UniProtKB/TrEMBL annotation:
Name of the protein in its database record: Cell division protein FtsB
UniProt organism field: Microbulbifer rhizosphaerae
One example of a Gene Ontology biological process annotation: FtsZ-dependent cytokinesis
Keywords: Cell cycle, Cell division, Cell inner membrane, Cell membrane, Coiled coil, Membrane, Transmembrane, Transmembrane helix
Membrane topology: Single-pass type II membrane protein
Family the UniProt entry places it in: Belongs to the FtsB family.
Periplasmic compartment segments: 22-95
Subunit relationships: Part of a complex composed of FtsB, FtsL and FtsQ.
Highest taxon of the lineage: Bacteria
Coiled-coil segments: 29-63
Entry's Gene Ontology cellular component terms: cell division site; cell septum; plasma membrane
Function summary: Essential cell division protein. May link together the upstream cell division proteins, which are predominantly cytoplasmic, with the downstream cell division proteins, which are predominantly periplasmic.
């Protein structure tokens, strides 16, 4: 009878170990759920960025307005006859 009780206790301890500490434990499942939520957030942000880049590519392909806006913003280009004014922040120039 003692052997049966010892075997049953050992089986109970092994199953409890796997439940709390081993592979597939509750702690590991919670960690994986957190990782999944973080990855879904990153994926959402990347999908948003991809849509923005796709809109920009379409705009650049469709006509010159997108190319002109990109050149003005990124390269600081101006058209002939335009005057460029640059306003500096006085606090930044005193450094």
């Amino acid at each position: 009878m003692r052997w049966l009780l010892a075997i049953l206790t050992a089986i109970l301890l092994v199953t409890q170990y796997r439940l709390w500490v081993g592979e597939g434990s509750l702690a590991e499942v919670a960690r994986l759920k957190r990782q999944l939520a973080e990855q879904r957030g990153k994926n959402t942000a990347l999908e948003r960025e991809n849509r923005q880049l796709l809109r920009e590519v379409r705009s650049l392909k469709e006509g010159t307005d997108g190319v002109e806006a990109k050149a003005r913003y990124d390269l600081g280009l101006i058209e002939e006859g335009e005057t460029l004014f640059i306003f500096l922040d006085p606090e930044e120039t005193e450094e």
